[in-house]
Design a protein that fits this description.
The complex is a heterodimer of chains A (about 300) and B (about 180).
Chain A lengths: L2 H8 L15 H10 L16 E3 L8 H4 L7 E3 L5 E3 L3 E6 L2 E6 L6 H10 L3 E9 L7 E7 L7 E3 L15 E6 L5 E9 L28 E2 H10 L3 E10 L17 E7 L9 E9 L2 E7 L11
Parallel strand pairs in A: 6-10, 12-15
Antiparallel strand pairs in A: 1-2, 3-4, 4-5, 5-9, 7-10, 8-9, 11-14, 12-13, 14-15
Chain B lengths: L1 H26 L3 H17 L8 H25 L4 H7 L10 H12 L2 H11 L5 H8 L3 H21 L6 H10 L3
Helix pairs in contact in B: 1-2, 1-3, 2-3, 3-7, 6-8, 7-8
The chains are: A alpha+beta (about 300), B mainly alpha (about 180).
C-alpha cells in the first residue's frame, strides 16, 4: 500500500462495499426494465433512439451518511413504458402494466400522473383499512369502453407470510385498457383513523383473530375476550326480515333471501344475553359486534 | 437468441451495477448526474450487447463506457453551466462530500489541481481497486504505458501534497482515516 493511494482513497465519496445490495434495489430493477424494454440491435438511427431521462429530484441521497441510493425516475420520452415518482412506480411486464405503490399516503394525483404517462386514465385511491385488508382492492369501477378490467393484485404476492402492512401494493392492468377506471385499495390506517372496509375482526391478522364470533355466542362470553385484547366494543343490531317481506325493511338480502339491516345501538341497551354473529374491525383498538336480542337457529349473516 | 442476450445482459448488470454506480457517484457532483451516467452507461451496453464481454472483463469494459459517458456529460455540463459554478458549489452540500475535515478538503483541493488524466488513473487504482493491467483494459492502452503513467501521476500528487504542506506520513493518513465517521 502506498501513501498516495491511501490519500486518494480518503477522497472517495463512497466505497463500493457500502453499495452492497443496490443492484437488487428498486432503482436498479427499474432501470434494467427500462433499458431492456426495447430490443438492443440493430442500433436504431440516432434520431429515434430511446432516450432515458431521469426525473428531477433527490435521487441519490445521503450516500456518506446512510449509503442509501435510489435512482427512481425513469421516463422514456417516447412511448413511455416506465414511469416512477416518489409515490408510484409503473413498468411494463409483457401485455400488462404493473404499478407498485411506493408511498400509500401520497397525494392520489401522483398515482394518476404515472398512468397518464402511459396513456391510461386510472384513479387510484388508497383508503385506510384493517390490517388483513391492506393491499387489497376494496372497490373497483370504470366508465367508457374497456377491453379488460383492471386486475389489482392483492399485496399477498409481494408479502412474506404473516406480513400484512409493509409490503408494496401492486396493481396490474392490461396495456390496452381504454376505460376511465378507478380502484380503491386498502392501505394501513394512521393511528386513530377509522377503517373504510367492513372486514371481519376475527380474520387472521385482525384484532379478534382466533375468537369464535360467528356462532351466536352471548355478548357476556365475547366481551371478556375483547377486554383481554384491550379492545373497545361498539354494537350494531342486526334486523332480519324474512323473505317476501323484504320491501318493508331497508338493507340488502341475506344469504337465504332474508333482508338484513344494521343499526348502531348503544352499549347500555345491549344485554349480556344478546347474541353475537360477527365482529367488524372499526379502527385500531376497536371492534363492532353485530348482535341480535335473542338466539337464532343459524347465523343470519352467513348461511 | 434474444432471450439469451437478455439473460446475459441481466447477469452482467446485476454483477456490475454496484461497481458502476460507485464509479459514477464518486465522480459526479450531483445525484442527478450520477444517476444519468449509470443509466446511459447501461443503455449503451444494451445497445452494444453483442460486444459486451463476459466475466470480469465486463466490469472493465463498462468502466470504459462509463468513462466516455462521463466525459461527454462534462463537456455538455461545461457548456450549460459555465456561469453556474458558484451555484453548483452551493448545491453540492446536499450531495454528501467525503471532505469533512479541513485536511481532507485541502487534499481534495490538491487532487483536483492534477490533470483529469492523472486523477482518473489514481482514482481507478484507489477507488475501483484496479491494477495496471485492468486499467489498460479500461483505457484501451498498453499495460506498460499505464504503469508509467500511474507512476508519474503518483509522483505528481506527492509533490503537490508536499507543496501544499500536506506531505503525508503513514501515521497522519491513518489519523485522518480514523477521524472519519464510518
Amino acid at each position: 500500500m502506498n501513501t498516495t493511494e491511501e490519500t486518494v482513497s480518503l477522497l472517495a465519496r463512497v466505497h463500493d462495499d457500502a453499495l452492497s445490495g443496490q443492484a437488487t434495489g428498486t432503482g436498479a430493477r427499474t432501470l434494467l426494465a427500462a433499458i431492456t424494454a426495447t430490443p438492443p440491435a440493430p442500433a436504431p438511427p440516432r434520431a429515434s433512439r430511446m432516450r432515458l431521462r431521469l426525473t428531477v429530484g433527490a435521487l441519490v441521497t445521503g450516500v456518506a451518511a446512510t449509503t442509501a441510493i435510489v435512482i427512481p425516475g425513469l421516463l422514456a420520452e417516447e412511448n413511455a413504458t416506465v414511469y416512477a415518482n416518489s409515490a408510484i412506480e409503473l413498468e411494463r411486464d409483457g401485455d400488462e402494466y404493473v404499478a407498485r405503490i411506493k408511498d400509500p399516503f401520497a397525494d392520489h394525483r401522483r398515482y394518476t400522473e404515472a398512468f397518464s404517462a402511459v396513456g391510461i386514465k386510472m384513479d387510484i385511491r388508497l383508503v385506510p383499512v384493517s390490517p388483513s385488508a391492506v393491499g387489497k382492492m376494496t372497490q373497483i369501477g370504470s366508465s367508457g369502453g374497456s377491453p379488460g378490467r383492471p386486475q389489482p393484485l392483492s399485496g399477498g404476492s409481494e408479502c412474506e407470510d404473516g406480513e400484512t402492512t409493509d409490503c408494496p401494493i401492486v396493481v396490474r392492468l392490461s396495456v390496452d385498457y381504454s376505460a376511465h377506471g378507478w380502484i380503491k385499495i386498502g392501505r394501513a390506517a394512521r393511528p386513530g383513523e377509522s377503517y373504510q372496509n367492513a372486514g371481519s375482526a376475527a380474520r387472521k391478522g385482525e384484532a379478534l383473530e382466533g375468537v369464535a364470533v360467528r356462532e351466536g355466542r352471548k355478548v357476556s362470553e365475547i366481551l371478556p375476550e375483547a377486554g383481554e385484547r384491550g379492545l373497545a366494543v361498539i354494537y350494531s343490531v342486526v334486523r332480519v326480515t324474512p323473505p317476501g317481506k323484504a320491501g318493508e325493511a331497508g338493507g340488502g338480502p341475506g344469504p337465504s333471501g332474508a333482508a338484513l339491516s344494521f343499526e348502531p345501538i348503544s352499549a347500555d341497551k345491549v344485554g349480556p344475553g344478546w347474541r353475537v354473529w360477527d365482529a367488524e374491525a372499526v379502527k385500531a383498538g376497536a371492534v363492532r359486534l353485530l348482535v341480535t336480542p335473542g338466539p337464532l337457529p343459524k347465523n343470519p349473516l352467513y348461511d | 437468441m434474444d432471450d439469451e442476450r437478455q439473460t446475459r445482459f441481466e447477469v452482467v448488470y446485476r454483477e456490475t451495477y454496484e461497481r458502476i454506480l460507485g464509479y459514477a457517484v464518486r465522480r459526479c457532483h450531483s445525484p442527478e448526474d450520477a444517476a444519468d451516467v449509470v443509466a446511459e452507461t447501461y443503455a449503451i451496453a444494451w445497445r452494444r450487447v453483442a460486444d459486451l464481454p463476459g466475466g470480469d472483463e465486463a466490469r472493465l469494459w463498462l468502466y470504459g463506457v462509463a468513462r466516455n459517458v462521463l466525459a461527454n456529460h462534462r463537456r455538455g455540463e461545461q457548456r450549460r453551466h459555465a456561469r453556474q459554478i458558484a451555484l453548483e458549489e452551493d448545491i453540492a452540500v446536499f450531495f454528501p462530500s467525503p471532505e469533512e475535515t479541513q485536511e481532507l478538503r485541502a487534499i481534495g483541493h490538491v487532487f483536483r489541481s492534477l490533470s483529469v488524466d492523472d486523477r482518473e488513473l489514481l482514482s481507478l487504482v484507489a477507488w475501483e481497486g484496479l491494477d495496471a493491467g485492468e486499467i489498460a483494459h479500461v483505457l484501451g492502452r498498453s499495460r506498460n504505458a499505464v504503469r508509467i503513467r500511474i507512476y508519474r501521476a503518483r509522483k505528481r500528487l506527492s509533490h503537490a501534497l508536499e507543496d501544499a504542506g500536506l506531505g503525508f506520513t503513514r501515521n497522519r493518513t491513518a489519523e485522518i482515516q480514523a477521524g472519519r465517521p464510518s
